[in-house]
Amino acid sequence: MRMLSPISAVTGALMLCAALSAQAEVSGQIDATLNVEPGCLIDSAGTPDGSAGYNFGTLDFGTVSTIWTNPLQATLSSGGGQLSVTCSPGVDTFTVTINGGTSGNGATRNLVFADSNVPYQVFRDAGQSLPYEINQPESFTVASAGESIAVPVYGLVAPNPETPVAAGTYVDTLTLTFNF
Fold first, then answer.
1. What is the C-alpha to C-alpha distance for residues 51 and 30, in angstroms, rounded to an integer?
2. Element (H, E) at 7
3. Residues of the domain holding 45
């Protein structure tokens, strides 16, 4: 068996001590930031700005026979016919744009079933005098921060007294875009 010399043992011990004392300490900092920009919440569901894909409700025109003689009116199912927008300080106005729907042709919004369609309109008022034109932004003024601003949405299908339409459930999907 081979024996270590006393010099080798001392050298090894010194190297071990040097290695243990050679540790260093480094410290530093991390910056944390948060950028808060003015924005709005839409409806009582608290839809935050920058969000997409929310269902704001339904315009339900009801059930009729294949011919109807009176206009069919619809009120947005959530919020009593309107959405509610509440904005933070720094937002003075916002716009609402409603597209032509998934079944529209660029000039008319249509409810569609199979190969049949029923045109309809969307309005800002229950009296159907202020239309939401297709892809045209409508401006709303924010009088004071934190105030709830009503964004009404009403629908109208004109009477169809002469030409029967196919029986079925007619549908369309509108996209509402809020910009502030």
1. 30
2. helix 6-21
3. 40-179
Tokens 């991390």 appear where? Answer: 30
25-48 pLDDT, tens digit each: 999 999 999 998 998 888 755 556
C-alpha 84/C-alpha 74 separation (Å) is 18
CATH number of the domain within which 69 lies: 2.60.40.1090
Domain-embedded: residue 8: no
Measure the CA–CA gap between 39 and 49, rounded to whole angstroms: 6
Q: Which residues pair with 72 in a beta bridge?
A: 157
Closest CA to 164 of 119, 120, 118, 109: 118
- Residue owning tokens 């008022």: 125
Q: Is residue 51 part of a domain?
A: yes
User: Which amino acid is present at 114?
Assistant: A
Phi, psi of 7 (to 5 degrees): -70, -40
Per-residue pLDDT tens for 114-143?
A: 999 999 999 999 999 999 999 999 999 998
- Angle, CA 175 vertex, CA 91 and CA 171 arms, to 5°: 150
Domain assignment present for 32: no
Instruction: State both tokens at 147.
Output: 């105030």
Torsion angle (degrees, nearest 10) of CA 43, 85, 76, 120:
-140
Residue with tokens 């199979």: 114
Whether 67 is covered by a domain: the verdict is yes
Tally of domains within the chain? 1
